[in-house]
């Protein structure tokens, strides 16, 4: 079966996601991406992603009309839901606390900060349950929550002589496989801030993937369209 432009682009998206997750190095990504854009049939596309699971699920067949589930740092959500919680709360009084890196959030997590601050980073976290409630209370203090752009987060809180809400966020599509996190509570003469942001390592990988893709596109434009003789075309004559 002949491959369409949409199918080639979907395979390219899977490859970009794989390099962002660290499954492919840049050389492998560059080679596979170039092959994907030159592919003419499904048989040429399928080997490029056979060893790469789609984030959160198995790789969909090349001919499938269903879009692949993409997730960035939120990849493989089912594997990140379940298991015993490693932390049920955080407390700061004239000091601070932080929860970040690889940790498991309790289904009900309570954070309190008075004359201090707390940091809750969900970008690499696992979750005890698909439904998670994070309750944040501050009195003349602050709590900062960082979530990946693909995580389903709902913010409901009250600020009294303070603030409670979301700040500037990176763009990202909510993953249907992600847990649902509700952030509630109140801030009295303090603040609770929620930010959607990728990790530095992931932003770097995505940037490198985009640069490699642009370079592959430039090479294809220089080579010119396939002339149908199996040679892949050549440089356009001036």
UniProtKB/TrEMBL annotation:
Region of interest (Disordered), ranges: 195-238
Domain DUF1707: 1-53
UniProt xrefs under InterPro entries: DUF1707_SHOCT-like
Pfam family, one: DUF1707
Listed Basic residues bias regions: 197-207
Compositional bias (Basic and acidic residues): 208-223
Protein name: DUF1707 domain-containing protein
């Amino acid at each position: 079966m002949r491959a369409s432009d949409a199918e080639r682009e979907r395979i390219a998206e899977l490859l970009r996601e794989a390099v962002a997750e660290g499954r492919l190095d840049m050389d492998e990504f560059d080679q596979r991406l170039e092959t994907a854009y030159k592919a003419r049939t499904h048989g040429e596309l399928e080997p490029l992603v056979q060893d790469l699971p789609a984030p959160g699920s198995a790789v969909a067949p090349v001919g499938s009309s269903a879009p692949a589930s993409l997730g960035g740092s939120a990849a493989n959500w089912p594997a990140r839901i379940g298991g015993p919680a490693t932390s049920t709360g955080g407390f700061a009084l004239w000091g601070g606390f932080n929860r970040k890196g690889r940790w498991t959030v309790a289904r009900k997590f309570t954070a309190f900060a008075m004359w201090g601050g707390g940091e809750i980073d969900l970008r690499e976290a696992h979750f005890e349950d698909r439904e998670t409630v994070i309750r944040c209370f501050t009195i003349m203090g602050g709590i900062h929550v960082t979530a990946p752009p693909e995580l389903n987060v709902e913010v409901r809180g009250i600020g009294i002589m303070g603030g409670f809400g979301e700040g500037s966020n990176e763009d990202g599509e909510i993953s249907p496989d992600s847990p649902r996190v509700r952030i509630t509570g109140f801030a009295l003469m303090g603040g609770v801030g929620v930010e959607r942001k990728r990790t530095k390592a992931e932003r770097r990988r995505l940037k490198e993937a985009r640069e490699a893709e642009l370079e592959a596109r430039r090479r294809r434009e220089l080579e010119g369209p396939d002339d149908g003789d199996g040679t892949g075309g050549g440089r356009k004559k001036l």
